[in-house]
C-alpha cells in the first residue's frame, strides 16, 4: 500500500474540516428556524391584525371628518333658515355614502333633513353627546330594520335652538363587507368588534363560531389560556384600551387572539385564527429542507472544485491581480494629466491678460513649455507607471539639476495658487549641492502629486515645498495649512482608492490613487514616506530618498542659440484629419520654408501621390488614425503602387500611440519612422532634413 503524500493528506484534512463546518452550519440553521418559528409567526399575525384595525379605523375617521366638514360649512355660512339648512343637508346626503343626516334634539329625538323623525333601537343619549363631541355607535333603524353605524357630533351653531347634535348613519355592511373575506393562512380569520367590557358588538362571520351576544372575557374564562395569561388581565387591557395577544385552546383547537383598540367609543377589534395558520410548520420544514439541499449542493460543488481545480486557483489569483491593476491604472490616467493641463490652461489665461509686457509673456511661455513637457513625460511614462504596479518598473539614473527640477515643478501650480489666493513657497536652502544622480522623472512625479493634493485641499494659507540634503539622501517636505486628516485615515492613506469622507473632502474630485502611486514610486526608489496631520490645521508629507550628489557640480555652459532651420525647396504631402494639428504642423513647416500640401485622410493622400498631374513631393507626413482610410493602409498602397518613387519616398508617421507593438506595425506598413504627438519641433525638423538630404536612409 502506497503512503499518502503530504499534499493529498492536507487536501483530505481540509475537506473533513469543511464538511464539519457545513454540518455545524446545518444544525445551527435548523435549530434557529425551529426556535424562532413561533415568534416569527405570532409577529406576522400581529402585523396582519394591525392592518385590519387601521383599515376599519380609517373608514370611521373618514365619515366623522365628513360630518365635521358639514358642521363647518353650516356654521361658516351662518344659515338660520331651516329650508336652506335642509337643502344643504339633502345635497350632502346625495354627494356622500351616508344614507341619512339630521339633528338630534334635546329630548333625544332624531329629526331627518326631510323633517321626518327617525327612530333607532335605542334613544340617542343627549348627555352622552355633550360628554363626547365625536361618537359613533352601532344601532338599528326601527323603520327599515337594518343595522347602522350612527355618527354624532356636538352642534352649537345656528338654526333650531333645540338641536344639540348633528347625526348621520351608513349601513353596517359598509364595514362588514370589507372584512368578511378576510383570510389568513389556511383557515381564515374571525374578526369582531367588542366594547371596553368585552361585549361583542359585531362579528365578521361564523368561521369559528357565532359570537353574537357573547362576551369575550366570559369566553376566555372557560378556555385554557397559555403562558400564564388570565382573562382578568385581558379585561384590564380592554378597559385601558391596550393591545395584546393571547393563545388559548377552545373546543380542542389551539387559537390565537389579537386585540387592538379602534380609537372610537372604547371599541376594540379582535382577530382570531387557528394556531396552525400562524405557525405554518409545513412551510418551515420545506424551507429548511430546501436550505439543507442547497448547502449540500454547495458542499458537493466545493469538494469537486477543490479536488479538481487546485492549480487553477493560483491562475485565477494572478488574473484578478492583473485586472485590478488595469482598472487602477486606467482610472488614474485622467488624474495624473490634470495637473499639467491645469498649468497650461491657467498660464494661457495669465498670458491673455498680461497686456504688452514682453518679459511676462516670455516667462509665461516658458512655464507653459514646462507644463507641456511634463504632460508629455506623463504620457510617455504610461508604460513605466504600469510596470510600477506590476513590479517590473526600472529606475533610470542620470545626472540632473535638482534645484531647477523643484522650481519647474512648483511653477506648474502658479495659476492654481493665484486663483485660490494662497501662497506657494519653495525652500531650497537645505540643498548642499545642485546636481544629483537619480531618476529625475520619478522624483518630479512624486513632488507633483504631493503639491497637487496640498493645493487642492488648502483654502487659506500657504503650501510649502522644502528640499534638503542629508548626506547620502535627500528629504522632500510638502507642508500645507489645509483641512488636515483624522488619525484613522492617515493609517490607510497610502492604500488604493482611499479618500477621507469629510465635508470639505466631498467637494473634491479624484480617483483616490494619487497617494498609492506616490508610495509605490517611493518604494521603487528605495525611499520612505510618512505623513503628519491635524484636522483643520494642516498636513506635512515627508519623503526620504537615497540620492547621491554628482561629483561634477559645475554648471554647464548655456547652449548656443540654434541656427534657423531651413526647409526651403522641400515639398511635403501631409495627411492629417484634425484641423488644429494640421494647422500647427503646416504653420511650423511653412515658417521653415517648406511647401506643404495638406489632405484630410489616407485615401486623399494616395490619390494625390499617384496623380500624374499633381505637384511631386519629397516627403510624406502620415497620420495613423484617420477616417475613410487610415495611415497604415495608405502607406501600404503607396509602397505597392507602380509610382517611380513608391519604394524610396520617405513616409514619416504622426501618431499619439506609444506602444512598441504600434511602432512595429508602422514599420511593417512601409513607413520609415514614427514621430510621436505632441510633436517635438526640433525632432520634426531634424527628421525631415535627415531623410531629404540623405543623412538617414
From TrEMBL:
Enzyme Commission code(s) on record: 2.7.13.3
Keywords: Kinase, Membrane, Phosphoprotein, Transferase, Transmembrane, Transmembrane helix, Two-component regulatory system
Chain ranges passing through the membrane: 12-34, 287-307
MF GO annotations: histidine phosphotransfer kinase activity; phosphorelay sensor kinase activity
SUPFAM superfamilies per record: ATPase domain of HSP90 chaperone/DNA topoisomerase II/histidine kinase (SSF55874), CheY-like (SSF52172), Homodimeric domain of signal transducing histidine kinase (SSF47384)
Catalytic activity, as annotated: ATP + protein L-histidine = ADP + protein N-phospho-L-histidine
Top-level class of the enzyme under EC nomenclature: transferase
Domain Response regulatory as annotated: residue spans: 571-692
Domain Histidine kinase: start-end pairs: 332-549
Residues annotated with 4-aspartylphosphate modification: 623
SMART domains on file: HATPase_c, HisKA, REC
One cellular-component annotation, GO: plasma membrane
PANTHER family in the cross-refs: OSMOSENSING HISTIDINE PROTEIN KINASE SLN1, TWO-COMPONENT HISTIDINE PROTEIN KINASE
Family of this protein: In the N-terminal section; belongs to the phytochrome family.
Function, as annotated: May play the central regulatory role in sporulation. It may be an element of the effector pathway responsible for the activation of sporulation genes in response to nutritional stress. Spo0A may act in concert with spo0H (a sigma factor) to control the expression of some genes that are critical to the sporulation process.
Name of this chain's protein: Circadian input-output histidine kinase CikA
Primary gene name: luxQ_3
Amino acid at each position: 500500500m502506497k503512503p499518502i503524500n503530504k499534499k493529498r493528506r492536507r487536501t483530505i484534512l481540509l475537506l473533513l474540516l469543511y464538511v464539519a463546518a457545513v454540518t455545524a452550519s446545518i444544525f445551527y440553521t435548523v435549530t434557529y428556524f425551529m426556535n424562532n418559528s413561533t415568534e416569527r409567526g405570532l409577529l406576522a399575525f400581529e402585523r396582519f391584525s394591525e392592518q385590519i384595525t387601521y383599515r376599519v379605523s380609517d373608514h370611521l375617521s373618514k365619515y366623522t371628518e365628513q360630518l365635521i366638514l358639514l358642521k363647518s360649512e353650516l356654521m361658516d355660512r351662518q344659515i338660520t333658515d331651516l329650508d336652506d339648512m335642509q337643502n344643504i343637508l339633502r345635497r350632502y346626503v346625495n354627494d356622500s355614502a351616508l344614507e341619512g343626516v339630521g339633528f338630534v334634539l334635546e329630548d333625544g329625538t332624531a329629526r331627518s333633513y326631510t323633517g321626518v323623525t327617525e327612530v333607532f333601537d335605542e334613544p340617542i343619549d343627549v348627555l352622552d353627546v355633550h360628554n363626547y363631541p365625536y361618537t359613533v355607535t352601532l344601532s338599528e333603524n326601527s323603520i327599515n330594520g337594518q343595522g347602522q353605524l350612527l355618527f354624532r357630533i356636538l352642534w352649537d351653531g345656528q338654526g333650531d335652538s333645540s338641536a344639540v347634535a348633528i347625526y348621520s348613519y351608513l349601513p353596517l355592511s359598509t364595514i362588514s363587507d370589507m372584512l368578511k373575506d378576510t383570510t389568513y393562512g389556511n383557515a381564515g380569520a374571525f374578526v369582531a368588534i367588542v366594547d371596553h367590557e368585552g361585549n361583542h358588538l359585531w362579528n365578521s362571520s361564523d368561521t369559528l363560531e357565532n359570537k353574537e351576544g357573547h362576551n369575550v372575557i366570559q369566553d376566555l374564562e372557560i378556555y385554557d389560556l397559555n403562558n400564564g395569561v388570565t382573562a382578568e388581565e385581558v379585561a384590564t387591557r380592554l378597559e385601558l384600551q391596550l393591545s395584546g395577544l393571547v393563545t388559548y385552546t377552545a373546543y380542542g383547537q389551539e387559537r390565537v387572539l389579537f386585540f387592538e383598540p379602534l380609537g372610537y367609543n372604547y371599541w376594540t377589534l379582535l382577530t382570531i385564527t387557528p394556531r396552525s395558520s400562524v405557525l405554518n410548520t409545513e412551510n418551515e420544514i420545506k424551507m429548511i429542507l430546501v436550505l439543507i439541499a442547497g448547502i449540500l449542493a454547495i458542499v458537493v460543488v466545493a469538494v469537486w472544485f477543490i479536488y479538481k481545480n487546485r492549480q487553477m486557483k493560483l491562475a485565477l489569483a494572478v488574473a484578478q491581480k492583473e485586472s485590478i491593476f488595469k482598472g487602477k491604472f486606467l482610472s488614474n490616467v485622467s488624474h495624473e494629466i490634470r495637473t499639467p493641463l491645469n498649468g497650461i490652461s491657467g498660464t494661457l489665461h495669465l498670458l491673455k491678460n498680461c497686456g504688452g509686457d514682453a518679459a511676462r509673456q516670455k516667462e509665461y511661455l516658458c512655464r507653459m513649455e514646462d507644463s507641456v513637457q511634463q504632460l508629455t513625460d506623463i504620457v510617455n511614462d504610461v508604460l513605466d507607471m504600469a510596470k510600477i504596479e506590476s513590479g517590473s518598473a526600472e529606475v533610470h539614473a542620470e545626472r540632473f539639476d535638482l534645484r531647477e527640477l523643484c522650481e519647474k515643478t512648483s511653477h506648474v501650480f502658479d495659476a492654481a495658487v493665484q486663483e485660490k489666493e494662497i501662497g506657494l513657497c519653495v525652500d531650497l536652502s537645505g540643498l548642499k549641492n545642485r546636481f544629483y544622480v537619480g531618476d529625475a522623472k520619478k522624483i518630479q512625479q512624486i513632488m507633483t502629486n504631493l503639491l497637487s493634493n496640498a493645493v487642492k485641499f488648502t483654502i487659506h494659507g500657504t503650501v510649502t515645498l522644502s528640499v534638503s540634503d542629508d548626506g547620502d539622501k535627500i528629504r522632500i517636505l510638502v507642508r500645507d495649512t489645509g483641512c488636515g486628516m483624522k488619525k484613522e485615515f492617515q493609517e490607510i492613506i497610502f492604500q488604493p482608492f482611499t479618500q477621507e469622507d469629510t465635508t470639505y473632502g466631498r467637494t473634491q474630485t479624484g480617483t483616490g490613487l494619487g497617494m498609492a502611486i506616490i508610495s509605490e514610486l517611493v518604494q521603487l526608489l528605495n525611499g520612505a514616506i510618512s505623513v503628519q496631520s491635524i484636522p483643520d490645521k494642516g498636513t506635512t508629507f515627508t519623503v526620504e530618498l537615497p540620492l547621491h550628489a554628482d561629483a561634477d557640480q559645475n554648471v554647464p555652459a548655456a547652449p548656443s542659440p540654434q541656427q534657423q532651420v531651413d526647409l526651403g525647396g522641400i515639398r511635403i504631402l501631409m495627411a492629417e484629419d484634425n484641423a488644429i494639428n494640421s494647422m500647427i504642423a503646416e504653420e511650423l513647416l511653412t515658417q521653415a520654408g517648406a511647401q506643404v500640401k495638406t489632405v484630410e485622410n489616407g485615401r486623399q493622400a494616395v490619390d494625390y501621390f499617384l496623380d500624374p498631374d499633381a505637384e511631386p513631393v519629397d516627403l510624406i507626413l502620415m497620420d495613423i488614425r484617420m477616417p475613410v482610410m487610415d495611415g497604415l493602409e495608405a502607406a501600404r498602397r503607396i509602397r505597392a503602387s507602380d509610382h517611380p518613387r513608391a519604394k524610396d519616398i520617405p513616409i514619416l508617421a504622426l501618431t499619439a500611440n506609444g506602444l512598441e507593438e504600434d511602432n512595429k506595425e508602422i514599420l511593417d506598413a512601409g513607413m520609415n519612422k514614427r514621430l510621436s504627438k505632441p510633436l517635438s519641433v526640433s525632432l520634426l525638423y531634424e527628421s525631415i532634413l535627415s531623410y531629404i538630404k540623405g543623412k538617414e536612409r
